[in-house]
Sequence to fold (119 residues):
Amino acid sequence: MERRALIVVAVGGVAGALLRWVIGEIITDTAMALLVVNTVGTGLLGAVTRGALRGSSVRRLLVGVGFCGGLTTFSTFAVEVAVRLDAGRPVDGLGLMLLSLLLGVFAFGAGTATGRPVR
Fold:
């Protein structure tokens, strides 16, 4: 593993995790904060995947792997859905799951539409 790549991913991950924390402080409803960070991160990852940062592997590692990886969170998503299901609120749990998936697919599509096509 290349040391430079490791550092770049770590820096991006720290920045993404810090932004996720800040958003959680601003948006105190955990489910809403979760939807925001996962939707934004998925849209950005769509742009990276499409090729918006194609010219630089360092930027792809920094933004795609590090930042988006630190910003988005599947574990919190799973916990939030499970908590609602365990509390006897299946409509809330399944609604959160469906909304998160739909927003993610939409954001990824929007992100790929904004990224430069790969040539």
Observations:
- The helical segments are 3-26, 30-50, 57-71, 74-86, 90-114.
- The longest helix spans residues 90-114.
- DSSP finds five helices and no strands in the chain.
